Amino acid sequence: MWYKTPRTAPHLGRSSFQIYLQSSACMRITSKHPLQLTSRPSNSPSFRFSQQCRGISNRIYPKAAWFVPVAGTRRIVYNTRNTEIPTFFPSTVNRLRHTSIQSRNYITPNMASNLYTDETPEPIRSSKGLHLITQSTPNGQKVQILLEELKAIYGTEWGTSIINIGTNEQKKDWFLRLNPNGRIPVIIDNDKSFSVMETSAELLYLVEREDKDHHFDFTDPLEKSQLLQWLYFWHGSGAPYQGQVNHFFKYAPAPPEQLQYAQTRFKNETLRVFGVIEIHLSGKYTGQPREYLAGNGTGKYSIADIGSWPWIKGWGWSGAITKQDMEAFPHLLKWIDRIAERPAVKLGTGDAYDASKRPELYVGEKR
Ligand SMILES: N[C@@H](CCC(=O)N[C@@H](CS)C(=O)NCC(=O)O)C(=O)O
């Protein structure tokens, strides 16, 4: 139902904002799926939605205009003829995103509204707040550990779904929609209808969202830079090599003589990277041995450590790297043990993420 209002909207005050919507889209939206508008700040769903609509109308229908003034606690939508649309309820906003707007491609594919389809497993589709899709591999464990650390300090809550990457569940459409790279882990922030791929970006996203007191990152720009250096170093120069060691020693389907070059190459690169971290931790060039990768003095445990530890602690997994090889890295070995002692690290690598112990978390094809 629509209401007539005075010609001038009385509440277009300082706290108001205006948006312009393409009128026929707006007509469909408001008649079928009422839109709630709030006076809350710019990260509210309705404001973001409004911004999206503004982009649409500017591009396609520059002349069509709907005013959406928001002031104080009033929640009112106006069109150009000052016709007032009644106020609406929050639950309609999500429904709106998933139906009329999305199906008409008014929102670009990257936008949040496209997170789920009917194919998305129900526990993920109906998840609220933060949701992790994982398997307890080194990459999965990075995010599992940080979430457990955040829970220990802030009581952070999230849901977990475990998939079996052996069945290629991560290559299905429902998953690629969340992470086009088709790999775990993925974090979904349902509060913002936003998904995050790539472990380092996920760690950064989570500390930004949850770690208000900076337990796992830094406020000082130089310390923060150091954190990023080691986070990126491992992401770009550590995991890819160690991942190839695992591949060429454990999985590659070729006769051993054909694998030798790749095996030697990636094993040596991995050991070289371990050596880089050993130099840093030993204080060889600074005179200051360190306990952790980033931070002044001996450093502070942070997402730089969390981003690399789950891989490095598994140095023996492929069978390629021997105890004797590792003797060259005494500081690295102590760092592995130091971090392994943390309760949240034990939780993040433990039974809570073992699909055989938590079958209720399993989604998708099992085997
Ligand atoms: N660069 C990615 C790598 C993620 C990744 O490789 N995940 C592995 C598990 S450790 C995976 O999903 N593999 C399945 C596949 O390759 O299809 C990240 O840091 O998130």
TrEMBL record:
<feature type="domain" description="GST N-terminal">
    <location>
        <begin position="127"/>
        <end position="214"/>
    </location>
</feature>
<feature type="domain" description="GST C-terminal">
    <location>
        <begin position="220"/>
        <end position="363"/>
    </location>
</feature>
<dbReference type="Pfam" id="PF14497">
    <property type="entry name" value="GST_C_3"/>
</dbReference>
<protein>
    <recommendedName>
        <fullName>Glutathione S-transferase</fullName>
    </recommendedName>
</protein>
<dbReference type="InterPro" id="IPR004046">
    <property type="entry name" value="GST_C"/>
</dbReference>
<comment type="similarity">
    <text>Belongs to the GST superfamily.</text>
</comment>
<dbReference type="InterPro" id="IPR004045">
    <property type="entry name" value="Glutathione_S-Trfase_N"/>
</dbReference>
<dbReference type="InterPro" id="IPR036282">
    <property type="entry name" value="Glutathione-S-Trfase_C_sf"/>
</dbReference>
<dbReference type="InterPro" id="IPR036249">
    <property type="entry name" value="Thioredoxin-like_sf"/>
</dbReference>
<dbReference type="InterPro" id="IPR010987">
    <property type="entry name" value="Glutathione-S-Trfase_C-like"/>
</dbReference>
<dbReference type="InterPro" id="IPR040079">
    <property type="entry name" value="Glutathione_S-Trfase"/>
</dbReference>
<dbReference type="Pfam" id="PF13409">
    <property type="entry name" value="GST_N_2"/>
</dbReference>
